[in-house]
Amino acid sequence: MIERDLDVMKNADYMIDMGPGGGDAGGTIVAAGTPEDIMASEQSITEKYLKTERG
Question: pTM for the whole thing?
Fold first, then answer.
């Protein structure tokens, strides 16, 4: 499932972040784990959005 709702993502038990971009630039797991694990990943673009959402 592709999810873009930050509230759903920050409350997830486990996430797999694919990237590093969309389409042809994607397809690699750049981060996996809890939202906190994703926010700790320097390779994840999603981590920037989660950090912004949480303040």
Answer: 0.77
